[in-house]
Amino acid sequence: MSSKSVLEHFTVPDDFQNGNTFKGKCYAGRTELPDNLKSMFRPIAMVTPDSMLISEITLFGEGFGNCKALAKKTYTLYSLAEQQLSKQDHYDFGLRALVSVLRYAGKKKRNSPNLSDEEVNKFS
């Protein structure tokens, strides 16, 4: 295969077809987009998701009553753990881990309806 392929009127290097260009920031083999492709994309802005609001909505969806207070406690616990515990890669205190714990708490609540919301959240 040639070192370049033609896509309509743009010349695209082969490593674009292999997907090596669009990896995350920590990928060592990352390359810049050529100017002819850069002009086709618009700049975007991203914001950090509101984890407390997401926690509150998740708890509400799982059937908890005092969602605002429980979400605040859970979010505070996760943010303190993220700040104070080891920064090793295998520890994950991000949004995905937080939501999975809240979903597990909802599962526990459905399996043990006699427990209060505070107890279910504490044991999860």
From TrEMBL:
GO CC, any one term: dynein complex
Lineage of origin: Eukaryota, Metazoa, Spiralia, Lophotrochozoa, Mollusca
GO biological process, one term: microtubule-based movement
Protein name, per record: Dynein heavy chain hydrolytic ATP-binding dynein motor region domain-containing protein
One function term, GO molecular function aspect: dynein light intermediate chain binding
PANTHER family: DYNEIN HEAVY CHAIN, DYNEINS HEAVY CHAIN
Domain Dynein heavy chain hydrolytic ATP-binding dynein motor region as annotated: residue spans: 26-120
